[in-house]
Amino acid sequence: MDSVTKRYPDGTVAVDRLSLEIPDRSITVLVGPSGCGKTTTLRMINRMVEPSEGTILLDGKDIQQQPVNTLRRSMGYVIQNAGLFQHRTILDNIATVPRMLGWGKEKSRARARELMERVGLDGALAKRYPYQLSGGQQQRVGVARALAADPPVLLMDEPFSAVDPVVRKGLQDELLRIQEELGKTIVFVTHDIDEAVKLGTMVAVMRTGGHLAQFAPPAELLSHPADAFVEDFLGADRGIRRLSFFPSAGLELLTAPIVAVDATAEQIAAAGAGDTPYLLVTDQDGKPLGWSEPQELTAGEIKAGQLLSYGRPFVAGTDSLRAALDCAVLSPTGWAVAVDAEGRAAGVVSQQVIGEAIRGAHAERGADAKPGGAGKVQKVAP
Ligand SMILES: Nc1ncnc2c1ncn2[C@@H]1O[C@H](COP(=O)(O)OP(=O)(O)OP(=O)(O)O)[C@@H](O)[C@H]1O
What we know:
Organism: Streptomyces regalis
Radius of gyration: 25 Å
Bound molecules: adenosine-5'-triphosphate
Distance between the termini: 31 Å
Enzyme class: translocase
EC number: 7.6.2.9
Oligomer: single chain
Domain ABC transporter: 1-234
Pfam families: ABC_tran (PF00005)
């Protein structure tokens, strides 16, 4: 996208000399306050809106030189509230584009069934009508419909804004999975900075008047906001959010203060001999049950009910420092519990140690994350 401007007939400049290089096979998020020109930008990509000035190239070819129908066929389009055809079944909604392309009924429906599975929809919903589905399910149908003809590009305009936070998280996770499996080039519009940081490989922050404020990978955005507007838009908890990009792998986990529910008096005494104020009790399988002070534990008489809750554990190595910190903050003992992929206790770690790791990571990454250098920062589970 090279110096693209959109001036509506009434004189409103919705987009002002916008230049963006949208990377192939990744998710680019356009984010910014209401009215900053996100939707206009997205619609110029599939020519629902024609630019007043500037050029948009797709794979090096000017989109103005391509027939609109051919262009749109190469781009799936998903909008808020899914925009489904209310009088068609779910299966027929998804099969719309293949049918238009003359695929034939059976082949189109087979493709639609395959897509229902891909977007996490139960096949039993195929014969229902949109009004018989929840908002989240309708949104999944919208994504499936956009993917039906296997377009290389997917344009998504606030697709998850109308659903509740839990459903929204599910839809976001699903989109990341689909992107990983199918390698689509996705342009995604949102006004939610958390969504932008979670989904974007690259994030374009726009400001009112259709100006580009910053275009960067999310880790760089959080570490080096270009100006006061971007910093303000990222919000006061930018530092905490940034921890999502630091892995917990380097944390030193202690296993000595862990005892099984059927531990002997010697084992409890040995575990309590260290300088940790609490012991983590696990079941016989090694899964955490809760915390206790060592002197409160009597061999053979440990009851899960007497233990302090351990809150939510983090997955050792896989989860981020943000997740580890969250566990420690929520834990009544101030210690976080790390588990392995099977949910067995892998170790415990104090707030203090997590704090030191955070300081270390900030210092180390500070040098790394200068503009142009942050591409190296890998996203880890939030
Ligand atoms: N058809 C139109 N005619 C005139 N002005 C328009 C038209 N469509 C949009 N605008 C204006 O252009 C500006 C950008 O609108 P756009 O819908 O692209 O913003 P947005 O960032 O997507 O906003 P939102 O987050 O509220 O959807 C706004 O000031 C809007 O009022």
